[in-house]
Amino acid sequence: MSGLLLDGKSAVIYGGGGAIGGAVARVFAREGARVFLAGRTQSRLDAVAGDIAGAGGKAETAPVDVFDQKAVDAHAEAVAAQAGGIDIALNAVSVPHDQGTLLADLTLEEFMRPIDGFLRSLFITSQAVSRHMGGERPGVILTLSEPGSKLAAGGILGHSASAAGKEAFSRVLAAELAPRGIRVVCIRPHAVADAPAAGSYTKELFEPMAAAGGQSVEDMLTDGGMVQGTLLKRLPVLSEVAETAAFLASDRAGAITGTVANLSAGALVD
């Protein structure tokens, strides 16, 4: 009997070449999953797939634009045909957006960018994979959110609304898909301390806020205001997000659905 959490499972990761998506993909593969990486940049997907193959895992890549509904549907159908279905899906797609601009100076376009981008991609990918889950082959859809969903802080209107929307989307989708044996769980990390070094756009996102406080992004993520606002006096790291995702995707978490896993290091206390 295998001790691997995801032995024999098939997993699709959208944004699989990114910092979080790549970290999750590596852990999924380590735990026995056959991983299908989808994203816009082939070179970044290939880098993650190379790491997985080098460690003895299985990973395949495909350039997919998550905003192209027909392309996402076709990719999901191809994966399901090849793997016999889809067991796990994670949307780890990032949408560049503004943080730090107050209402008076925020444009409607900047406000709507994360709301439209994150929720549009989440709808398209969830709909595509859910067609190939359920029944005799239960499925798990994992989503990602941020503490902005509950923080009362200035300068993050679009970010907060999109984060709250992703959490609401996940809860309602869990209720809708539960009769088919599909679980939906949202993961809410804080800013991830080692994400910039892994190639995420975190540095670009937080540079204006850090500069306003006279700090570098690295300082802000290690001992700055974000860190001091957590109970643990630190931020989560990629390995913690990835290991949590693997557990939630596994049968050991079979009773967990319709909820948010709080990985904010105590920035939010639910």
From TrEMBL:
Q: Which UniProt keywords apply?
A: Oxidoreductase
Any keyword Oxidoreductase? yes
Q: Which Gene3D superfamilies match?
A: NAD(P)-binding Rossmann-like Domain
Instruction: Write out the transmembrane intervals.
Output: none
Recorded GO molecular functions are: oxidoreductase activity
Known InterPro entries for this protein? NAD(P)-bd_dom_sf, SDR_fam
Does the record bear Oxidoreductase in its keywords?
yes
- Family of this protein: Belongs to the short-chain dehydrogenases/reductases (SDR) family.
Know the name of this protein?
Answer: SDR family oxidoreductase
